[in-house]
Amino acid sequence: MRLTTIGTGTSSPHPSRVASSLLVEAGEVRLLIDCGSGAMHRMATIGLHWQDITHVALTHFHADHIADLVMLMMAWRWGQLPPRDQPVTLYGPIGTGALLERLAAVYGPWMLAPDFPFTVRDLKPDEIVSLPSGLTLSPHPVPHTPESVAYSIEHEGRRLVYTGDTGFDEAVGAWAAGCHLLLAECSLPDSLAVREHLTPRRAGALAAVAGARRLVLTHFYAPVESVDIAAEVAEHYAGPLVLATDGWSTEV
Ligand SMILES: [Zn+2]
Ligand SMILES: [Zn+2]
User: For residue 24, what pLDDT is reported?
Assistant: First the structure.
């Protein structure tokens, strides 16, 4: 499967990083995970064909992960000719259906009933969803907000884990054990550390607990970019490390 990091930034405006979003492609599935502010326009600048997205999954409801969901729905409905007719399924943690109802109350009933088949599904923790082409998607609770989840995506024996936003939690590392690629948030330097986010050292520690074959970091607030992220990660994790940028892509 192929991973593309669309947005590697946060809620803080950044000259080269829009807010969180990534695409996982395998077989006929084009799975968009999170759709933060700026993600739609970044898809255009990196040449990503947003019209072909088949599934969407949300990790949590902070605006830097969902703000462009309305824009995506609007683009499918009115931003392409002819309008979309292919189905879309939207997954998220418990509360996703209620979120869409609130968005529909603000923006209009088309948010829930666009002119293409649209399904919204709340996922239970650790539920395993089977997508086409043998892809599976499974959420796991993480310490960030009450609804927040990480996702495990598996295809043909390969496993990708995306933490979403999370604090450090050994149990999350154990759940991610053996993943081929761990895509982890890396919000803040130690000097600004909070319980709800990772620092480079904590991301390294999480990757070490997981025994991840490769670690890719994303979700950088500006202050963390002025520390030596690779050196701090290396205090805990010796495997290959990538600091993702918008439009970066790899086979998993
Ligand atoms: Zn975030
Ligand atoms: Zn968040």
Answer: 98
